[in-house]
Amino acid sequence: MTTRLIHISDVHFGVEDRSALALLERAIADNPPDAVVCTGDLTQRAKHSEYADAAQWFASLGVPVVLDPGNHDMPYYNLWERFTDPYRRYRALKAKVGGELASDDVVLVPLKTTVRIQARFPWSDGVVMDDALSETLAQLAALKGDPRTIIVTAHHPLLGPEGAAKNPTIRGEDAFAAIAAAGAHAVISGHVHVPFDEVREHGGHAMRMIGVGTLSTRLRHGAPPSFREITCEKGGQITTRLREVTAAI
């Protein structure tokens, strides 16, 4: 048995690429996955109208949807709401269209890497807070001995690019080592709008890091819009196929 996921990220409703979304919709209709997993930045400015568009689109897919919040999913213009209840709009969307993946092959464990405010600017890069990491590690501990493949989902990559002088995600290295030591087989993420699939090592622990590009018009480093098919079997067996969104899909 296998479980097939479609991993997307950084749809950025408000500046979404409607042609890319249409091609993804066709791919899902032609071969429905067990779930679509979106690792954050569902909206561009967390406007009510953008969340409404996101809700309509995710509901139209007709397959289970698993969501994580991104740094763009907290209000930009309503600072009072951002500081007092930054995920209220995201929670409402998740209540409408989000769900849990039920699979005999793979289990998804979220890690929150977004915060409402940081002691640096801009506030876009990731931060792994103690409570967020503790919650993820508690879920991983409860899965000890579970034969399924364990994938942690997060918006921000936990490690920076290989050879980079600085990791943009604060405490990402600590989180990577702790999650790998706790038995996770991979962590999937978005944020950088550039896909990657690599095995990384930190603190004596190795783990696979898998990222996907954007489905918006906010392209970076020449990477086109993309999504990724992830097929999982028990015991940490993961195969992926990157689908760059072109007219040929």
Task: Give an overview in words.
With 249 residues, the protein is of the alpha/beta class. Helices cover 26% and strands 24% of the residues. It has helices at residues 18-30, 48-60, 79-84, 88-97, 130-142, 172-181; strands at residues 3-8, 35-39, 65-68, 106-110, 149-153, 186-189, 196-202, 205-211, 226-233, 237-244. The strands form 2 sheets. A 5-stranded mixed beta sheet has the order 3-2-1-9-10, with helices on one face. Strands 4-5-6-8-7 form a 5-stranded mixed beta sheet. It starts with a strand and ends in a 5-residue tail after the last strand. The relative contact order is 0.19.
Short description:
By secondary structure, the protein is of the alpha/beta class. The chain contains 6 helices and 10 strands, in the order E-H-E-H-E-H-H-E-H-E-H-E-E-E-E-E.
Task: Break the fold down into its secondary structure elements and pairings.
Blueprint lengths: L2 E6 L9 H13 L4 E5 L8 H13 L4 E4 L10 H6 L3 H10 L8 E5 L19 H13 L6 E5 L18 H10 L4 E4 L6 E7 L2 E7 L14 E8 L3 E8 L5
Parallel strand pairs: 1-2, 2-3, 4-5, 5-6, 6-8
Antiparallel strand pairs: 1-9, 7-8, 9-10
Helix pairs in contact: 2-4
Annotation, overall tally of beta strands: 10
Compressed to H and E, one letter per element, the order equals: EHEHEHHEHEHEEEEE
Q: So what's the CATH class?
A: Alpha Beta
Tell me what portion of residues adopts beta-strand conformation.
15-25%
- Roughly what is the average pLDDT, rounded to an integer? 96
User: Which radius of gyration do the C-alpha atoms yield?
Assistant: 17 Å
Structural class: alpha/beta
Distance between the termini: 26 Å
Going by CATH, the architecture would be 4-Layer Sandwich
Helical proportion, percent range: 25-40%
Number of domains: 1
The backbone outline, from C-alpha atoms, is globular
Biggest sheet details: 5 strands, mixed
* CATH homologous superfamily label: Metallo-dependent phosphatases
